[in-house]
Amino acid sequence: MTQKGGPGGPIEHGFPHLATVRASITALFRRLSADGIRAYDTSFAPADAAFDTTDDLHLGAQRVASAMVRALRLPDARMVVAFRPTEQAATVELAAGPEYFVEVSDRFRIHRRDLAAALSHEVTHVLLHRLDLRFPGTEENEILTDTAAVYLGAGWLLLDAYREDALTHQKFGYLTPEEFGYVLAKRDALFGEDPSTWFTSPQAYEAYVRGRALAERDHHRPPLAAAGALARRRYAKARRSGPAPAGGPAGGSGAGSAYRFEREGSGPGLRVSFPCPVCGQRLRLPVRGRLRARCGLCRTVLDCDT
Asked: How are beta strands 270-275 and 260-263 bridged, if at all?
């Protein structure tokens, strides 16, 4: 896992990896199922991340690692944690198990508060390895790992490790702080959690608020009935235009729009396709006014006005 630190290191902001983040959430639902995702309904406890100078270095690291293994539901995996000089925050050796060797930066000998954050990414690597879930490119696979860590309840620590002020520029992982906040807000909406009391970093909480705002907008996009008046007018205009001609842009697929219109078979009727605001799976509904739809992947019931 990458680590950015120091007073002069730039930290990327915004949502440059949003498409991959959303694809990662969809991939998790497809691999684990809706019931499998809901088995991760309890987030990693802040008390289990506690690791200070009063703890024995190696026993304390093993205790935190064991707690992370339990949180990610890998009871038959054992993490062997070793400290060594490295520019990366941590790395894990992926093998058949049950033992996995994690090497963490020597900086965690002193800066122990962030050890659990580094371990959350590495233990999630082990989980995805066992699930045989991966993306083809290295960066995309790391984004998948960050997303899975947060969405399954352990990676909020990665966001809390983000600190950016006059003295420190630190961020772990491949997602931006706002993207970490976006995924955490998606999880919070699913399980009804409130992580506001967990954060020790004020910058992390601010990034979470920005990410939460975008996550909430996903639930207010047409054809969802909760969409605002301006978005509804744009949707109606795109609906009147109908499907785009072959080779052209799809109706309603302009900048910032996620819906597309298609013909229903060979008749004059229309249907609209759009991503589920919870799991990202594309749904297809007839354009017939107000109706309720159930996502086949995450089983969320959506109130729509097509």
From this structure: antiparallel
- Spatial separation of the C-alpha atoms in residues 260 and 80, rounded to whole Å: 49
For 64-103, write each residue's pLDDT tens digit: 999 999 999 998 888 888 888 887 888 887 777 688 888 9
- The burial class, CB within 10 Å (0-12 / 13-18 / 19+), for 7 is exposed
The number of C-alpha atoms within 13 Å of 251 and in the hemisphere containing its C-beta is 19
The per-residue pLDDT for range 265-274, each reduced to its tens digit, is: 666 678 999 9
Q: What SS3 state is found at 103?
A: strand
The 3-class SS string of 235-273 reads: HHHHHHHCCCCCCCCCCCCCCCCCCEEEECCCCCCEEEE
Residue 9 is predicted with a pLDDT of 62
Q: Which of 181, 164, 143 is nearest to 1 (CA)?
A: 143
Which pTM does this prediction carry?
0.91
CA distance 305 to 232: 9
Q: Is 31 helix (H, G, I), strand (E, B) or coil?
A: helix
- Taken as a whole, the chain contains a residue count of 306
Query: In this structure, what DSSP letter does residue 280 have?
Result: -
List the alpha helices (DSSP H) in 72-197: 115-131, 138-151, 156-160, 177-191
CA 237 to chain centre: 33
58-63, long-range: CB within 8 Å, 24+ apart, which pairs? 60/112, 61/104, 61/108, 61/115
